[in-house]
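Journal club prep — side note

Before the paper discussion, L.F. wants everyone to see what a predicted structure for a comparable chain looks like in token form. Sequence:
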Amino acid sequence: MLNSSQMTPEEQLATLALPCPLHRRLRQLSLIQADRCLGLSGRSHFTNASGVMTGTVGLDRSVADGYNAARACALTQLAVLKRDLGSLEAVVEIVSVNGYVNAVAGFEDSPAVINGASDLLVSVFGEAGKHVRAAVGVSALPRNAIVEIQMTVRVGQP
């Protein structure tokens, strides 16, 4: 399932700066497979020079900051998939994305923030990147992160 530019997901990913995902040291896994679906743990960080993007959207961070954080979280999820699958060619479709936005009470633009993740996934996977999703504002996230993204993907043969 090629994206609109007819590049494979691997070719599309090669044009992006993919972070190196950290291995989980806690009690949960980075991902778990059930039949042909992979559930990916929530990621609120990405590993680059600046580390975790922190703050609260609507207070000290803008919707644009949140959008960029959501995009970075989705890139980290793709790095986890690539690390554990060896290639993104095995991904048949992105099934769901749950996005959590560290926001002030009453913040109504969580969908605009989580669009950062959704837009990236569609740009990499084309139609196969379209998914169901939740975009929820929360009062806090671990390490004061702006965004956390959790995903489910369906895989086939690479």
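L.F.'s comment for the group: Strands lie at 31-34, 37-43, 91-102, 132-138, 147-155. Keep this in mind when we get to the figures.
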